[in-house]
Amino acid sequence: MHPIPVRRLTFEIPAPGEFDPIYAARVAAVSYDLTGLGLYVALLEPFIVKSMRRVMDQITDERLREDVDRFCRQEAQHYQQHERFNAVVLAHGYPGLERRIERLAADFHHFLERKSDRFRIGFVEGFEAYTNQGALELLESGVLEHPRTDPRFGHLFRWHMLEEIEHRNVAFDLYEHLYGGNLYRARMCWIAQGHLLRFIRDCAKIMSSADVGRHGDQCQIKPLERAILALRPWRKRIRSMLPSYTPHDYRVPPSIAAIAARYSDLAESVT
Ligand SMILES: [Fe+2]
Ligand SMILES: [Fe+2]
What we know:
- The chain has 271 residues and is mainly alpha-helical.
- The chain has helices at residues 28-54, 62-91, 97-114, 117-141, 151-166, 170-178, 182-215, 223-231, 233-241, 255-266, and strands at residues 7-8, 269-270.
- The termini are close together.
- It binds fe (ii) ion (FE2) (2 copies).
- The site of one fe (ii) ion (FE2) has 6 residues, from helix 1, helix 2 and helix 5.
């Protein structure tokens, strides 16, 4: 099998009436963090696919071209599944959330219309350089299989994080192939990661304040959780911007192969 397999899966989603916003290990900060990420990628990943497809003709390395194609096809599966879960989240009713999502959509529209290929590919690489480290952390944390995590969300994120790890080198290799140079890449890490983290922070604030009123204090993000959320990204952000950074150096634990085999077995098709 190709190391970047394209799996088609359809995940079970909660019925709108049974959606529990604190679905990740009963921890508000982690749950809202994941929901914000899910809302973000549903708009980011179509942008990724369009940005990568636009430069396809500039890729002179046959193997890289196939990897980029597979990368795009994996991302296309991700956002289609997240859209289904996001509809459940939005049906829960969060004043101000749809407006924030519209602002995000306008940003990506602006990037597609007004920015250069180098900006867009750098943005994709800046996002991947951060979230692929996060994907490894999340899979190793045990949160997604926690007995108090809704298994439907656990499944969705486990599959998604697995495939992020499978295609972890592609955006970096593409950036290096087309442009190279760390200074601009580091700048795009700063821009893309800030863009993601601001969106997640805004979503968490909007959702938590709406949910505290109807579900109680369990939906409050505690000060310690807030501090951890604010500090935790920095190690990954700094690492991603260093001149020595490369995703080829990631330590991928052997357990990832078992997760990959499991989702290939569950898939309706694998190509
Ligand atoms: Fe993805
Ligand atoms: Fe990705």
